[in-house]
């Protein structure tokens, strides 16, 4: 069924709130890292794993989440993911040690892997083609702002109460999502989806991401010649190669490789990888730098990024509509360039930085760039394939984004020269932050170039269709 009325708005509410759980927890922890380090005695690797434990399971299993939704019902899998996420959040909130916190974060990532692709697939299946770009734009603006809202929420909770509340607050939100989902979200699935699970693909993909993440995270402290580092990187490389082979040979692959015959789908996911690698590094390091180097309080550090939230809320739906009118290539090319300029500006934020002069202007520019980019990027990744593959397309795009952010958090401190330094030491973090932010700007420029080269001017699914007969029409339609 397709919805244009109040039913569609309830679907949007459920998917936005559900997605926000995963989005916020992808960034909210960053602002609390200094407090977690002090409270639990975590070292630099422990702090990285507090972020990466969540990102690893999310990235490794999100394709599985999309496949399960296509097979067994997107509403059902979405609801299971929300409930799982809430239970894991409760465990995070009471964790007494770094090790147990990281373990609970891994469980959180599993819940996120189940709910995140389902949210987008539900949207894709619930709106007529003519309304999808605006719906996804609204989802990007309302749900995607969770990533920017996270540091503000985390800073406020850390400063006025305790870092554990950043996890415990998920429980009542998840309960609300479950109620709205049960009452208002329609069920959808892919009738042609196979019933068999791609176990080999799940295991090889998890081994690949896990090996690379552990190796790069351990590298600064243990050195590149350490046997554990070398073995982990080798396992990661073999796992990723094994994943490609497994998906090529599987009768029911979790990631059908023939999807990448679509130039638009391939281009959108390559741009996603570069852009979200940059975003993963930015949201990990900017909030740390503002506290550790610039001397901001947790609340002030979180508030510093609030303009991004406001701009995405106001502009993302409009950017989705613009991309529908003029095509996705221009906004997907211009958006990363605007973000890159903002990151070069942000790289200058150092000790005793002034918020009005040094932080606010580049944050505004960065928010404008993200607002222009995110909705067209998401709509292109999903719109390049037909409805039957909505769950897989969503899962692939989310997996690419999460894997990019995961590897960025593991690799960027190493690439920027942290060595054996401490991420909570101003002298060690300041040069790392500057170098890493410039690397992220370079990733944004590369993403812009790929969008220009690979993203088409117009997606076939963006063409308006009237009735069943119009579904067979080919070619472009003039507006």
Please provide a written account of the structure.
- By secondary structure, the protein is an all-alpha fold.
- The chain has two domains: 6-185 and 254-460, Growth Hormone, Chain: A (Up-down Bundle), CATH 1.20.1250.20; 198-253.
- Helix content is 77%, strand content 0%.
- The chain contains 17 helices and no strands.
- It has helices at residues 6-40, 44-72, 74-94, 98-126, 129-142, 145-160, 165-168, 170-184, 199-222, 227-249, 263-292, 298-303, 306-326, 329-346, 355-383, 390-415, 426-454.
- The longest helix has 35 residues, at 6-40.
- The radius of gyration is 21 Å and the shape is globular.
- It starts with 5 loop residues before the first helix and ends in a 25-residue tail after the last helix.
- Residues 1-5 and 463-479 have low confidence and may be disordered.
Q: Which CATH architecture of the largest domain would you pick?
A: Up-down Bundle
Report the mean per-residue pLDDT as an integer. 80
Count of strand segments: 0
Helical content, roughly? Answer: over 70%
The unreliable regions are 1-5, 463-479
What oligomeric state best describes the polypeptide chains here?
single chain
How does the overall form come out from the CA principal axes? globular
Number of helices: 17
**Structural class based on helices, strands and sheet pairing:** mainly alpha
- Name the CATH superfamily classification of the largest domain: MFS general substrate transporter like domains
């Amino acid at each position: 069924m397709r919805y244009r009325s109040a039913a569609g708005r309830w679907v949007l509410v459920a998917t936005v709130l559900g997605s926000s759980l995963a989005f916020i927890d992808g960034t909210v922890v960053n602002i609390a890292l200094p407090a977690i380090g002090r409270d639990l005695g975590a070292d630099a690797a422990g702090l990285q794993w507090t972020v990466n434990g969540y990102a690893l399971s999310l990235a490794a299993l999100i394709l599985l989440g999309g496949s399960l939704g296509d097979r067994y019902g997107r509403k059902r899998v979405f609801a299971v993911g929300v409930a799982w996420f809430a239970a894991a959040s409760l465990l995070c909130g009471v964790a007494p040690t770094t090790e147990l916190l990281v373990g609970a974060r891994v469980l959180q990532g599993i819940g996120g892997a189940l709910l995140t692709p389902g949210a987008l697939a539900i949207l894709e299946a619930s709106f007529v083609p003519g309304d999808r770009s605006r719906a996804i734009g609204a989802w990007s603006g309302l749900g995607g702002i969770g990533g920017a809202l996270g540091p503000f929420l985390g800073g406020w909770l850390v400063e006025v109460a305790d870092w554990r509340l950043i996890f415990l607050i998920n429980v009542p939100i998840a309960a609300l999502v479950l109620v709205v989902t049960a009452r208002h979200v329609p069920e959808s699935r892919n009738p042609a989806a196979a019933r068999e699970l791609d176990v080999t693909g799940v295991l090889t993909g998890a081994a690949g991401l896990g090996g690379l993440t552990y190796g790069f995270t351990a590298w600064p402290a243990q050195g590149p010649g350490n046997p554990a580092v070398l073995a982990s990187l080798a396992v990661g490389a073999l796992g990723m190669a094994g994943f490609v082979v497994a998906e090529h040979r599987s009768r029911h692959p979790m990631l059908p490789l023939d999807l990448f015959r679509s130039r638009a789908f391939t281009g959108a996911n390559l741009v996603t990888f570069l852009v979200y690698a940059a975003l993963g590094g930015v949201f990990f390091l900017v909030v740390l730098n503002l506290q550790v180097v610039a001397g901001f309080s947790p609340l002030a550090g979180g508030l510093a990024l609030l303009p991004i939230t406001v701009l995405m809320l106001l502009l993302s739906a409009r950017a989705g509509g613009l991309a529908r009118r003029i095509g996705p290539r221009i906004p997907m090319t211009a958006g990363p360039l605007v973000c890159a300029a903002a990151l070069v500006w942000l790289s200058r934020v150092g000790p005793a930085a002034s918020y009005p002069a040094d932080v606010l202007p580049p944050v505004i520019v960065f928010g404008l760039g993200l607002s222009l980019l995110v909705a067209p990027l998401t709509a292109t990744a999903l719109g390049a394939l037909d409805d039957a593959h909505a769950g897989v397309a969503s899962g692939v795009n989310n997996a690419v984004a999460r894997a990019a952010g995961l590897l960025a958090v593991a690799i960027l401190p190493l690439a920027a020269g942290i060595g054996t330094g401490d991420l909570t030491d101003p002298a060690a973090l300041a040069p790392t932050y500057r170098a890493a932010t410039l690397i992220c700007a370079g990733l944004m420029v590369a993403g812009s170039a790929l969008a220009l080269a690979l993203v088409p001017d117009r997606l076939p699914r963006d063409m308006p269709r009237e009735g069943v007969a119009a579904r067979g029409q080919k070619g472009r339609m003039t507006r």
